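Input record (one chain):
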Amino acid sequence: MHGISDSTGFIYVTTSSIGEGNQQNAIYSKKGEYAPVKKYNAAGKDILGRNGFYGPGGEVWVNYSPIKSDITGPSKIIDEKRSKVYTYDQYGQLLFIFGDKGSMLGNIQKVSAIAYQGTNILLLDSTSKTITLYTRTEYGDILIKALQNEIDRNYDAAVTDYQDILQRNSNFDAAYIGIGKAYYRQSKYAEAMKMFESAYETANYSNAFKMQRQQWANKYFIVIPIVVVVILVAIVKFFGYAHKVNKSVTTSSGKRTFKQEVMYAFHVIFHPFDGFWDLKHEKRGSVRGAVFYLVLALIAVCYNSVGKAYIFNPRASYSSMFMTCISLLVPVILWVIANWCLTTLFDGEGSIRDIFIATCYSLVPLILFMIPATALTNVFTLNEASIYNMLISIGWAWVMLLLFFGTMVTHDYSLLRNVLTSIGTIVGMAFIMFCGVLFSTLLVKMVNFISGIVTEITYRM
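The corresponding structure, as predicted from the sequence alone:
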């Protein structure tokens, strides 16, 4: 283990005794437990910044070989295995790398120590017993100057320096972040957000967005509460209207209208026992109503996939609309088929139609929570992500409860029997998927076999 203290009293330590797998995972995850480099304060707490794509620790791809590194200053790490020097800023972002292993001019066979001579750097080669002097390039001079201007709060000069860096290297994320921080300190939050977005820096982007949101709130402090009140009143009025429609249906006769079938879902989600009973026995729902809510649920998951704000999906990574729909549609179909197959054998009273209707009506909470939660990501900061996760979790939990009670009421099962049936349904879903994969694999092999025979016959003719 190696250690050194800086001018502010913090202690930097490295070690070569960490397992290869733990070390690489620490660099990727940016967690400090198995990090090869740490920075301790007087209380013995690791406070090293790890804000780059990877945490400070030298080579990312260690190839399962130990790296012996030595901290030689507040921002430089030497890699004895690869004879390279890694330079990081105070936030743990990689600035540049130089050096390499070899016997040619400028290469080092085994770097053992580092020293400074003004802006020059001296590296000791313990194998050849030589010292190699490295002179900083113009690019390095501008970068160091930009960092110093940022520390000295010369933000305009720092922006100019970082812009010069981007002219030489437009992919340098630290420059975008540096410009963004300068804009942030100048209260130019919109410009700062654009810079942070270019570097996928969600933490600083969130801070800038929070300040811009505060400016919006101050500017529209009268409009915002009015909008909130209007939305709340609209929600209360809608549920009151749904209750009125559902109550009027109980005293009326004749065929149910599509509106009545759709509105009945808002009775089911709050009163699952009598709701699912009437859904089956009083025909308060229908297949068309079930399909309607299934389509809305598919729209909700698609919107959740593509509609989240930048903070919650910085790289805009999402599946295709087809795969997103399949991710919900397939489990619904498997649940309906597996539950029908199982309950048919164990005296279930529900038909496959009843199971499908009850399943689709159970998806309503997912629609009610997922769509607003996704929309709210456009006003949430990173610190408020837990609210988004909570809303999504409530929606899914509510759906699971409705599925459970819907199955129990539809088949007139006891609680214990319904628990066993639900577990059996999940097992049945897995079995059906296994059979489907097995059949598709065999089908592909048969097609390839027949295609090969046809090709062979064609060549021989």
